[in-house]
Specification:
heterodimer, A: 224 residues, alpha/beta, Rossmann fold, 8 strands, globular, B: 128 residues, alpha+beta, hypothetical protein PF0899 fold, Rubrerythrin, domain 2, 2 domains, three-stranded mixed β-sheet, three-stranded antiparallel β-sheet, elongated
Chain lengths: 224, 128
Amino acid sequence: MKIVKPDEGEILDIELEKDFLEKNRKLAAENRKALDQFGITAIDVMGSIGSGKTSLIGLLASLLKKRYRIAVVAGDLTTTIDAERITRLGIEVVQVNTGKECHLDANLIKKALSSLPLKDLDLVFIENVGNLICPAEFPLGAHKRVVIVSVTEGPWMVKKHPYIFHSANVAVINKIDLAEIMGVDPSRLVDDIKSINSSVKTILTSCREEKGLKEVAQAIGFQV
Amino acid sequence: MHDLYISRLIAQEVIKRAKREGASRVLEVRIKIGNFTHLNPEQLDFWLKEFFRNTLAQEAKILIKKVPTIILCRKCGYKSKLENADVYFPYFSLPFLQCPHCGSNNTELVSGKECLLERIKIEKRDKG
């Protein structure tokens, strides 16, 4: 005689309570601690593709390199174009290729920092991946977060991406030399930003004409 | 937006834990997603099913619960739940973190940023 047993094993309910965004936030806090130990200020620069992240970092680094020891962490999906642009200025660069990811995360920054001579640095610029959405969700441990938008992206850039301005300390509106041609009023972008986050410092720049850069340097806490 | 990335982390964790517990299969996966994240439960569900394919979690029931966006006003102390709606701009669904009582945007996020793998239910079967 065959006995047929019910096809069931032991059922276990396991509590995990693991938050995957929280994990990044914890790593970001660790990065901050490591930076503080060496007295380094880190600036996370976020913005969409072509908004002027690399230009802004390059110009700020050129202005500040006589007074401060600077390095740049350049995030990009696959290329080293940005890293090469910064290297030509005589600034140390660590390239982080995210591969498939749309943002830098705290773990990638931890690795990047480990390859930098931290005791010989005052200021680290982190160039995030060109994206106004994902980086907002992934703090890196930087002391200040700078968002850069440009008038060539049209009049709705801020309104469509409010989330990134919540976590920003400084908002840069770039390419104002082209505002008229584009028919975009920079002061309306400033109003949009202020309505989302009234504590954010807004600065108008033209990287091409090298305007507004000293103000940005001051806003992140450095004197030219 | 980064649902693929997060789904992969969750799937890896589920499979790792299930194997460690000696599971023969995973029956249920419970996840909590905050409304104030750029994570879309529908996309998460889609990618999780892809990552679970041909693993011991391939039949798992995926249960995703949304956590509301709740803010506390630092100015007037009013606590309120904010809806993801087309109230502010038709293009965007995340709310401004603005107090509906006094209009201040000096607010603190109480909940809504969760991306939690809450619990899993597994089946263990004796071998032989």
